[in-house]
């Protein structure tokens, strides 16, 4: 299977604190990788370093074989990587559709220059992007709220809007930060099915505290503790790993 993302011995320091220490992992195409670990283990930092928000002190990050050195969050969509944030990060003054279009923006050919060069083509591009955003909303069952402001919608629907914004760019890899938090049980189950279905189109890396859900949905799991990888493997391997039980899952009753 194709290795999309390869992280080798990445260390991230914030002043004196080591948030990640010699972390290595790989994300293969078509898989759902779960990243778990106690609070402060370094999970969000891992996403931030992949996204270019923070730079590693050392180590390498390769995307489809090419080393990422100076990548920035705003170049991610062009690389084929999308991300949802722990908070939803939706723009409250913009409609659902416009929020989703923000995710498609980096792909648009209708920037100021394109507009100067050809208004007709720019208008066509914009119409195509709007169609694509509407299709993405429809895929998630929320096309009906495209004109609403996010603040008027239930939390579970807003989370789907945030997912639509990440998916509209048709990424090769999707990074999801706590996608199940704040959702009702039926929504969590539905999200699991959606992510499993997505894995046919793109790789998914998911940081999530809901361990039962992670064990069900993910094909592989990486466990972080104090910035270090303490276990990697299939859910059943990780569940039975003594270091994981000691550090995180607790001794079963
Ligand atoms: N920008 C920053 N500046 C300083 N310290 C930071 C920064 N970001 C994270 N940290 C620290 O790095 C460590 C790892 O934090 P991180 O948020 O990655 O953990 P996490 O596993 O995502 O935690 P949680 O499950 O609570 O979200 C923590 O000790 C945190 O306080």
UniProtKB/TrEMBL annotation:
| Species of provenance | Kibdelosporangium persicum
PROSITE patterns in the cross-refs: ABC_TRANSPORTER_2 (PS50893)
InterPro entries in UniProt: AAA+_ATPase, ABC_AA/LPS_Transport, ABC_transporter-like_ATP-bd, BCA_ABC_TP_C, P-loop_NTPase
Query: Which branch of life, at top level?
Result: Bacteria
Q: Where is the ABC transporter domain?
A: 5-251
Name the SUPFAM superfamilies for this protein.
P-loop containing nucleoside triphosphate hydrolases
Which Pfam families does the annotation name? Answer: ABC_tran, BCA_ABC_TP_C
Which SMART domains is this protein grouped with? AAA
Output the Gene3D superfamilies linked to this UniProt entry.
P-loop containing nucleotide triphosphate hydrolases
Q: What are the entry keywords? A: ATP-binding, Nucleotide-binding, Transport
Q: What is this protein called?
A: ATPase component of ABC-type branched-chain amino acid transport system
